Amino acid sequence: MLSQCRHIPGCWNSVSEHCQVLRREPGWDISGGKIYDASGKKIWETKGKRNGHQEEHHDLFAALRRGERPNEAEYAKSTMTAILGRLASYSGQMIQWDKAINSDVALADFDSLHSLQDELPVKPLADGSYAIPMPGSKTQFI
Predict the structure, then answer these.
(1) What is the CA radius of gyration of the chain?
(2) Is the pTM for the entire model greater than 0.70?
Protein backbone atom coordinates (compact mmCIF):
# COMPACT_ATOMS: atom_id res chain seq x y z
CA MET A 1 0.00 0.00 0.00
CA LEU A 2 1.30 3.42 -0.92
CA SER A 3 -0.32 6.57 0.33
CA GLN A 4 1.17 9.70 -1.20
CA CYS A 5 0.61 13.12 0.29
CA ARG A 6 3.38 15.54 -0.63
CA HIS A 7 3.23 19.26 0.02
CA ILE A 8 6.80 20.40 -0.55
CA PRO A 9 7.39 23.20 -3.09
CA GLY A 10 9.23 22.15 -6.24
CA CYS A 11 8.30 18.46 -5.86
CA TRP A 12 5.75 16.18 -7.48
CA ASN A 13 2.62 16.81 -5.40
CA SER A 14 -0.08 14.19 -5.15
CA VAL A 15 -2.68 13.04 -2.66
CA SER A 16 -3.47 9.45 -3.64
CA GLU A 17 -3.54 5.85 -2.49
CA HIS A 18 -2.33 2.85 -4.46
CA CYS A 19 -2.06 -0.83 -3.62
CA GLN A 20 -0.10 -3.61 -5.28
CA VAL A 21 0.49 -6.87 -3.47
CA LEU A 22 3.20 -8.28 -5.72
CA ARG A 23 4.44 -7.29 -9.17
CA ARG A 24 2.67 -10.40 -10.53
CA GLU A 25 -0.64 -9.22 -9.09
CA PRO A 26 -3.03 -6.52 -10.27
CA GLY A 27 -2.73 -3.06 -8.80
CA TRP A 28 -5.40 -0.78 -7.38
CA ASP A 29 -5.60 3.00 -7.65
CA ILE A 30 -7.88 3.43 -4.67
CA SER A 31 -8.36 7.19 -4.85
CA GLY A 32 -8.89 7.02 -8.62
CA GLY A 33 -11.25 4.02 -8.44
CA LYS A 34 -9.25 1.88 -10.93
CA ILE A 35 -7.90 -1.68 -11.07
CA TYR A 36 -4.99 -2.72 -13.29
CA ASP A 37 -3.74 -6.15 -14.34
CA ALA A 38 -0.11 -7.22 -13.80
CA SER A 39 0.93 -5.68 -17.13
CA GLY A 40 -0.45 -2.28 -16.11
CA LYS A 41 -3.56 -2.45 -18.34
CA LYS A 42 -6.66 -0.91 -16.74
CA ILE A 43 -9.28 -3.65 -16.33
CA TRP A 44 -11.90 -1.80 -14.26
CA GLU A 45 -12.87 1.76 -13.36
CA THR A 46 -15.69 3.31 -11.35
CA LYS A 47 -18.38 5.06 -13.32
CA GLY A 48 -18.74 8.83 -13.16
CA LYS A 49 -16.92 10.95 -10.63
CA ARG A 50 -17.08 8.41 -7.81
CA ASN A 51 -13.79 7.22 -6.36
CA GLY A 52 -12.51 4.89 -3.65
CA HIS A 53 -13.10 7.44 -0.92
CA GLN A 54 -16.69 8.01 -2.07
CA GLU A 55 -17.32 4.27 -2.33
CA GLU A 56 -16.08 3.86 1.23
CA HIS A 57 -18.70 6.37 2.38
CA HIS A 58 -21.45 4.60 0.39
CA ASP A 59 -20.48 1.31 2.07
CA LEU A 60 -20.44 2.88 5.54
CA PHE A 61 -23.85 4.52 5.17
CA ALA A 62 -25.36 1.35 3.70
CA ALA A 63 -24.07 -0.64 6.70
CA LEU A 64 -25.50 1.93 9.12
CA ARG A 65 -28.89 1.76 7.37
CA ARG A 66 -28.82 -2.05 7.79
CA GLY A 67 -28.38 -1.48 11.52
CA GLU A 68 -24.75 -2.61 11.55
CA ARG A 69 -22.15 -0.85 13.69
CA PRO A 70 -18.88 -1.10 11.73
CA ASN A 71 -15.80 -1.28 13.93
CA GLU A 72 -12.70 -0.42 11.96
CA ALA A 73 -10.44 0.27 14.93
CA GLU A 74 -7.83 -2.10 13.50
CA TYR A 75 -7.33 0.42 10.68
CA ALA A 76 -5.79 2.77 13.24
CA LYS A 77 -2.59 0.79 12.70
CA SER A 78 -2.44 2.04 9.12
CA THR A 79 -2.87 5.59 10.37
CA MET A 80 -0.07 5.06 12.88
CA THR A 81 2.10 3.63 10.09
CA ALA A 82 1.59 6.88 8.17
CA ILE A 83 2.39 8.94 11.27
CA LEU A 84 5.51 6.83 11.86
CA GLY A 85 6.59 7.41 8.25
CA ARG A 86 6.04 11.13 8.63
CA LEU A 87 8.08 11.25 11.86
CA ALA A 88 10.93 9.33 10.22
CA SER A 89 10.82 11.39 7.01
CA TYR A 90 10.70 14.76 8.69
CA SER A 91 13.35 13.95 11.31
CA GLY A 92 15.65 11.77 9.18
CA GLN A 93 15.85 9.36 12.13
CA MET A 94 15.06 5.65 12.39
CA ILE A 95 12.08 5.54 14.73
CA GLN A 96 10.76 2.38 16.33
CA TRP A 97 6.99 1.72 16.50
CA ASP A 98 6.91 1.51 20.33
CA LYS A 99 8.90 4.72 20.70
CA ALA A 100 6.53 6.55 18.34
CA ILE A 101 3.32 5.16 19.86
CA ASN A 102 4.47 6.17 23.35
CA SER A 103 5.78 9.58 22.29
CA ASP A 104 4.36 12.85 23.54
CA VAL A 105 5.36 14.63 20.32
CA ALA A 106 2.72 17.11 19.17
CA LEU A 107 2.81 19.36 16.13
CA ALA A 108 1.21 22.13 18.15
CA ASP A 109 -0.52 22.74 21.48
CA PHE A 110 -4.00 21.93 20.21
CA ASP A 111 -5.32 21.48 23.77
CA SER A 112 -5.01 25.23 24.29
CA LEU A 113 -7.52 25.95 21.51
CA HIS A 114 -11.04 26.66 22.72
CA SER A 115 -12.56 28.72 19.90
CA LEU A 116 -11.91 29.85 16.35
CA GLN A 117 -10.81 33.20 17.74
CA ASP A 118 -7.84 31.69 19.62
CA GLU A 119 -4.35 32.42 18.31
CA LEU A 120 -3.22 29.77 15.82
CA PRO A 121 -0.71 27.28 17.26
CA VAL A 122 1.22 27.11 13.98
CA LYS A 123 1.95 30.45 12.34
CA PRO A 124 2.99 31.18 8.77
CA LEU A 125 6.33 32.77 7.95
CA ALA A 126 6.54 36.42 6.87
CA ASP A 127 5.90 35.47 3.22
CA GLY A 128 2.74 33.51 4.14
CA SER A 129 4.29 30.06 3.64
CA TYR A 130 4.96 27.58 6.43
CA ALA A 131 8.28 26.16 7.60
CA ILE A 132 9.37 23.04 5.72
CA PRO A 133 10.67 20.15 7.83
CA MET A 134 14.44 19.72 7.53
CA PRO A 135 15.66 16.22 8.46
CA GLY A 136 18.64 15.96 10.74
CA SER A 137 19.57 18.68 13.14
CA LYS A 138 16.62 21.04 12.47
CA THR A 139 13.53 18.81 12.77
CA GLN A 140 13.79 16.53 15.79
CA PHE A 141 11.53 13.66 16.79
CA ILE A 142 12.09 14.01 20.52
Answers:
(1) 19
(2) no
